[in-house]
TrEMBL record:
One of its GO terms (molecular function) is DNA binding. This is DNA-binding response regulator. The lineage of its organism: Bacteria, Bacillati, Actinomycetota, Actinomycetes, Streptosporangiales. Residues 150-215 form the HTH luxR-type domain. GO terms for biological process: phosphorelay signal transduction system; regulation of DNA-templated transcription. It comes from Streptosporangium carneum.
């Protein structure tokens, strides 16, 4: 099995070099490109089609949010997996990153292990949000409000799907959900796929956003 191909974009060379070294030390991760600004990051991402893009929020020319939207936004037919990483622990950044299509949000002090987890999660279609911001997501959504009215499911969600929805919205991975609900991993995947189909969601972050916007999840 080939490794996870990652593109790293950060305008600070010392930070970018550190991220590349951390990821490159992982046996199943290969850094295939580096960029110092958002426009170059988008250009490289479209050409290289990495499995995961790791973008800083504050970059010259085109910031990480806009770069993410260009590659993973609602209008992108074949979105890439993007993890946003930043020094700034601000709710509006979390909301903007997820709204733009990011599959993960991390702080730069998260550590090598969590960085690796976020890349693996994004590559697998999961989402990893920094623990320090996960609990505040609902508040950020409540203050900002959805960009448009939440969609109605094409079919009513089953009780089990509502249960899966709640734990997906709290940032749990498929393995964690299986352990928490005492069901098989394949069953979790089946329910997540059903939720995506019913909600018209492209990934589990969009499932989580729908849960917040329809008040399925409360802090």
């Amino acid at each position: 099995m080939s490794g996870i191909r990652v593109l790293v974009a950060d305008d600070q060379e010392i930070v970018r070099t550190g991220l590349v070294m951390i990821l490159g030390a992982q046996p199943d991760i290969e850094v295939v490109g580096e960029a110092a600004d958002g426009r170059r990051a988008v250009e490289l991402a479209r050409r290289l089609r990495p499995d995961v893009c790791l973008f800083d929020i504050r970059m010259p020319g085109l910031d990480g949010i806009e770069a993410t939207r260009s590659l993973a936004g609602p209008d992108v037919a074949d979105p890439l997996a993007v993890v946003v990483i930043t020094t700034f622990d601000l709710d509006e950044y979390v909301y903007a990153a997820l709204r733009a299509g990011a599959r993960g949000f991390l702080l730069k002090n998260a550590g090598a292990a969590m960085l690796s987890q976020a890349v693996h999660a994004a590559a697998a279609g999961d989402a990893l949000i920094a623990p320090s911001v996960t609990a505040r997501l609902l508040g950020a959504f409540a203050r900002t409000g959805p960009a448009s009215a939440p969609v109605h499911p094409v079919e009513v969600l089953t009780d089990r799907e509502e249960q899966i929805l709640a734990v997906v919205a709290r940032g749990r991975t498929n393995n964690e959900i299986a352990d928490e609900l005492h069901i098989s991993l394949s069953t979790v995947k089946s329910h997540v796929a059903s939720l995506m189909a019913k909600l018209g969601a492209r990934n589990r972050v969009e499932i989580a956003m729908w849960a917040y916007e329809t008040n399925r999840v409360r802090s």
